[in-house]
Design a protein that fits this description.
about 140 residues; single chain; about 45% helix; 3 helices; 5 strands; five-stranded antiparallel β-sheet
Amino acid sequence: MAKTLKSRSGRLLSGLVLAGAVIGLVTVLQTAREQHSWASAEATVLERIKSGKSASVKVEYPLPDGSRQTATLSENGSAHEAGTRVTVRYDLRDGRVADAALADNDQVFWVLGVMLGVLVLSSVGANLIAWTPVRRDS
């Protein structure tokens, strides 16, 4: 493996993997930070919708202007049954809800962040192997 990494294509590939992992990690961190800056409201789960292995919940929550918004949101965290109270984060643009998510939906960011962090560290190691000069025994 070390000989393959030290080739021109091995060095290029290890550099590309490192760049892709860093860009992915930065994107995940920015998205998580952006979602945490959204406004939040207490919502009531109207129903839980199960489709195959995925689940979503239909929730109703109040907006700052006094109106009520109903949305179907992806459920990646713990299961919420009808009638339970949850916190919803939403992004308002021009007085309309542009995007919304359950506030306990942070597991996705943690999983992706850890996976990409491990990939970044592994790629740094592969780049160190790829770019160190070959020892010549005299």
